[in-house]
Amino acid sequence: MSAGRTARERVRAELIREITEIARRQLATEGAAGLSLRAVAREMGMVSSAIYRYFASRDELLTALIIDGYNAVGEAVERADANAGAADFAGRWLAVCRAVREWALEHPHEYALLYGSPVPGYKAPEDTVPAAMRDTVVLARIIGEAHAAGALEPSGPCPPALAGDMARVRSALFMDVPDEVIVRGLTAWAGLYGTVSFELFGQFNNVIEERAAYFDHTMTLLGRLAGLKP
Amino acid sequence: MSAGRTARERVRAELIREITEIARRQLATEGAAGLSLRAVAREMGMVSSAIYRYFASRDELLTALIIDGYNAVGEAVERADANAGAADFAGRWLAVCRAVREWALEHPHEYALLYGSPVPGYKAPEDTVPAAMRDTVVLARIIGEAHAAGALEPSGPCPPALAGDMARVRSALFMDVPDEVIVRGLTAWAGLYGTVSFELFGQFNNVIEERAAYFDHTMTLLGRLAGLKP
DNA sequence: GTGATGTCAAGAGCAGTGCTCTCGATTCGG
DNA sequence: CCGAATCGAGAGCACTGCTCTTGACATCAC
């Protein structure tokens, strides 16, 4: 990935890296709406038009930051899962949830860029998909291994209308579990990010003060819903 | 509320109404980021500075739209709840969930303004709170009445650390239910909006196609988590 | 080595934004 | 009826994303 051949390519890659780094810092302080190409250029001692040699538009720069963000939360999730006891499936689920929440609290603007409203005028760049799947892959692995170990509680049936969707999820995430397990996992997945978003976007203001304790308990409830015994 | 005394006050109220209406239409087509005071003024045949006689800033106009949005979804929820059989608590829960989802699908940009990332540079105007509570009041009433009717399944305990928060919620929403019921209701509440946000913000792309069927099933699972028997 | 080729930063400029201030005209209240 | 309050218009400031042209530089083939 590194080792650009010519010197030109090397300095070009370095400049792209520097631009994204400054942009990420601005994103962290000002938010996505305050990210300005001109400000990035100013901080680099360049003129604004020069940035366009490296990013065709502001949205393209934003997309690069989105991909980096998905990878960052994916890495945090993978690390949290690896540090938990492999056979303690409920513990792994809770550790992963906590990792998502902690990353979100540390990078609120980046989280908003990933899981908030899609700002830049509705676009869903396809190249963000693989990075966006890293956390779901981890969650799927936890549930899959718990199922293989016979550690999942039995659950009610899944509507036949969802069979096609469940089959797609099963193959995309390399799961070997029945439909009713997948659909409950998806519910817990949405509940995780819904709870984090509520906390970050202010819906818990004047409602929940003991954020960490509430989060742990809610995630435990969702884990049980997914079949994970505490 | 109407019947401004002087003619000036009447035309002023009418102009404020017209501004918000045009702004809401622009919001619906362009999104929050594309809402432009100058464009609103242009469409009204006014000059941009004249708008500032009625709204001190773009953010203030946005806040007015936010309050209107909360009231709109609150009304939709109240109507859905009223149209369901009073004693069918699970049915009322599902009807309310569907009302939220349908409103969100019909007004995606407004929904993003309410439940997405807080765009206008982090502010939480206090005057949005009462409007934002209308839907949660309905949800609380369903669970409260179900509990009073003895229709809730028993649930595990709630951590004592959350007793203070639960007491605050209980008094704010006029609920007469124990802590463990409240915390499960909150979990279902966050799950509802998390699911709607996931669908609207693109996280279900290439994952779930049978959106309505999946939504109904997920909401039923969350309703059961809250104690509502199907 | 030298000349052609491609890449680069810089600058000017366009169209748009939120917002402020001033200046006449209109309207209201006493 | 007259002073005071309110209003719309206009100019202007400091920004933004983005385009186009220009001249300097490095790279590569010969």
TrEMBL record, chains A, B:
Keyword Endoplasmic reticulum: no
One Pfam family this sequence matches: TetR_C_33
Domain HTH tetR-type: 13-73
DNA-binding region coordinates: 36-55
Nucleotidyltransferase as UniProt keyword: no
Alphabetic keyword roster: DNA-binding, Transcription, Transcription regulation
Official protein name in the record: TetR/AcrR family transcriptional regulator
Native organism: Actinomadura monticuli
